[in-house]
Amino acid sequence: MKVSIDMGLTRDSKPATLDLEELLATRLLVQGNSGSGKSHLLRRLVEQSAQWVQQCLVDPEGDYVTLAEEFGHVVVDAAEHNDVQIAQIAARVRKHRVSVVLNLENLEAEFQLRRAAAFLNGMFEADRDHWYPCLVVVDEAQLFAPVAGGEVTDEARKQSLGAMTNLMCRGRKRGLAGVIATQRLAKLAKNVAAEASNFLMGRTFLDIDMTRAADLLGMDRRQAEMFRDLERGNFIALGPAMARRPLPVRIGDVKTGGRGGSPKLMPLPETPPEDALDLIMTPGENEPPPQPARKIRPLPPQTATNDVLTQLAAARPPEPEPEEEDGAPVDPAVTIERIMREVIADPDAAFRSTAVLYQDFLVRCRMKRINGRQLDLAAFKRKLATARAGVSIEAEHSEDWDKAQSVADRLPEDLQPLFLLLARAAMDQTPCPSDTEIARARNSRSPRRARGLLEYLESRGVITQREDAGGLRVIALPDLAWETAPGDPRAGEEAPGGGQSDLFGT
Q1: What is the mean pLDDT of each run of 10 residues along the chain (506 residues)?
Q2: Distances in whole angstroms, Cα of residue 365 to Cα of each of 114, 255, 319, 359
Q3: CA-based Rg of the chain, rounded to a whole angstrom?
Q4: Distance of CA 404 to the CA centre of its chain
Q5: What residues does the AAA+ ATPase domain cover (predicted)?
Q6: Residue 111 pairs with which residues in a beta bridge?
Q7: Rounded Cα–Cα distance for residues 203 and 231 (Å)
Q8: Residues 348 and 478 in one domain
Q9: 371: helix, strand or coil
Q10: Where does a domain end: 190, 225, 251?
Q11: Which end of the chain, N or C, is less surrounded by CB atoms within 10 Å?
Q12: For residues 81 and 79, what is the distance between their CA atoms, to the nearest angstrom?
């Protein structure tokens, strides 16, 4: 059955009708600033469709309770019931097909969201046998489906947003047709607004709201300025239930009115000044007795900031200098060197990132009451590479090591630790590092990768490799004229099987 609802007149003074059956299948979004006639539009829609379809209104301001006398809506005061009771009432509302107004005006914002969520969820979760067509009108929808959290808790916001999303996204199959009204599209969650196929856009002034309204109506953004010029009660309609192209509509009159309404100018009472003073200073008959005035203690004189800082500095005990076990003072530079060695002494340090090791270094410095920030991250990387190479504190400041460091600086940063490891072995004439040690210098456990790195360095002319008569590896550094002692490249590697069962072994 097709039912056409008279919403008012078009620009050509023709009736502006709304297909109620199509509205139940496609939902409606109303947008307009305060004073644009948004609540008047919702009241017109409710009054014209009251005899054809069940209606449930979520009313945060108590404006629609006047529908009860004229159209028989049952007013449910949410302040008198808890969440469980509200959900049960919503289920009975669907079962008995009673039109109701959920009045939330006596609740704070937190409980308004909780009660609205309980009511909408109760209707949504009703038994399949009770999925009758129902028009669900939510005024000030940006309160119940906000883009971001406000003064309410995240739990209440998520409950309300989830209920509104269910209403607009999944409510159609359950017979629930959402009609939501908002002052600002920018404050309304997009996943809720996007599910509406019918739109009635009223007066708005902010650029972001005008742009979104124009986008929803498929209008050129240059035409968005027209929303500023709309008069009260005038809207632009679009959608399968009203018009296939943007259609200006002027909303018709209503039978009922809100309890608030728009403020009207009226003359002030002619009260002489002396009588007006008595009126505001004399308590009325039903007013509680005034509370005794609380004495306010004078604030102590304020102290200058510089004086406070001076007092704090004088009261702070001097930081003791780091000492050796025998009580002799220690050079902070030497302490930093030792802390660096402590950091890399951790067996897992070779496989941690430089940033993590730097934070570990700073914590250890604070424990020793040393300013670790005198080494920035770049200087820390340089010292870390030197320490990982096994260079002693004394050798680090020698001329030979400065030469090795200058050669390393010409390499990419990730290859410098590897080159310094080879340079330290060549400088000390110790055996050539094994593949396992070379891989560890690059935060790896793969000997194959170590051999690939050596081949890369050799291709750049930084090192040369050869084998002695015993099959041991010798690496020479041409730029420094240094050469390592022969070393076993497979030293430290596990034997085949590695203590583990080999499924394919013989």
Answers
A1: 86 89 91 86 93 93 90 92 93 94 91 94 92 93 84 87 91 92 86 87 81 76 76 89 89 83 73 73 74 65 72 63 50 70 70 75 80 75 72 72 82 79 85 83 74 84 86 88 87 53 33
A2: 51, 79, 14, 10
A3: 40
A4: 49
A5: 24-349
A6: none
A7: 7
A8: yes
A9: coil
A10: 251
A11: C
A12: 6
Which helix (H) or strand (E) element contains residue 424?
helix 416-428
The answer to the question of residue 210 being in a domain is yes
Angle between helices 377-388 and 332-345 in degrees, nearest 10: 60
Whether residue 132 sits in one domain with residue 13: yes
- Yes or no: say if 45 and 18 are a contact pair by the CB < 8 Å rule: yes
In a domain, 500, yes or no: no
Phi and psi angles of residue 159, each rounded to the nearest 5 degrees, phi first: -60, -50
Round to whole Å and give the CA distance between 385 and 418. 8
Q: Which two tokens stand for residue 185?
A: 């599209």
Contact between residue 209 and residue 184 where contact means Cβ atoms under 8 Å apart: yes
SS3 of residue 331 by DSSP: coil
Distance, CA of 273 to CA of 284 (rounded, Å)? 19
| Start-end of H helices in 223-329 | 273-281, 305-315
Strand order in the sheet with 15-19: 15-19, 4-10, 243-251, 234-239, 198-201, 28-31, 176-182, 134-138, 54-59, 100-103, 74-77
- When divided into structural domains, the chain yields a total of 2
Structure tokens at 490: 């497979």
254-295 confidence digits (pLDDT tens): 988 876 666 677 787 776 766 777 777 777 777 777 666 666
- Give the per-residue pLDDT at 349: 67
Query: Within a domain: residue 218?
Result: yes
Beginning with the edge strand found earlier in the chain, give each strand of the sheet holding 464-467 in spatial order.
Answer: 464-467, 473-477, 482-483
Residues 336 and 245 in one domain: no
Evaluate whether 16 touches 249 at the Cβ level (below 8 Å): yes
> In the block, which residue shows the tokens 């002695």?
468
Which pTM value belongs to this model?
A: 0.54
Of 214, 251, 197, nearest to 26 (Cα)? 197
DSSP state of 297: P
What domain range includes position 353? 332-483
3-class SS of residue 78: helix
Domain end among 251, 284, 299: 251
Residue 375 in contact with residue 337, Cβ under 8 Å?
A: no
- Residue in this structure with the two tokens 């916001």, named with its chain if needed: 157
**439 neighbors 447 (Cβ within 8 angstroms):** yes
Alpha carbon distance 366, 370 (integer Å) = 6
For the record, the structure tokens of 376 come out as 């920035």
Contact yes or no for 28/199 (Cβ under 8 A) = yes
